[in-house]
Design goal:
There is one protein chain. The protein has helices at residues 3-24, 52-59; strands at residues 29-36, 39-47. The chain is an alpha+beta fold and 63 residues long. It has a two-stranded antiparallel ribbon. Strand 1 (29-36) and strand 2 (39-47) form a beta hairpin. It starts with a helix and ends with a helix.
């Protein structure tokens, strides 16, 4: 395997790890992957916090 192919593989493994870590860190949310010229250039994480259980406890459940 050439050096160029090896460095490309390391980069891909690194990106895959970043995506995996982003997904594992979320309970609710989204992971957006931006691609330019067939290359991943950015990962965005949008996390959501849910408070459904808090309202149910305080108000006796339901809406």
């Amino acid at each position: 395997m050439s050096i160029q192919q090896n460095s490309r593989k390391v980069l891909n493994d690194s990106i895959i790890k970043e995506i995996s870590d982003a997904v594992e860190s979320l309970e609710y949310g989204e992971v957006h992957i931006k691609v330019h010229n067939r290359k991943i250039i950015q990962i965005e994480i949008a996390e959501r916090k849910r408070f459904d259980d808090v309202w149910k406890l305080e108000e006796g459940g339901g809406i």
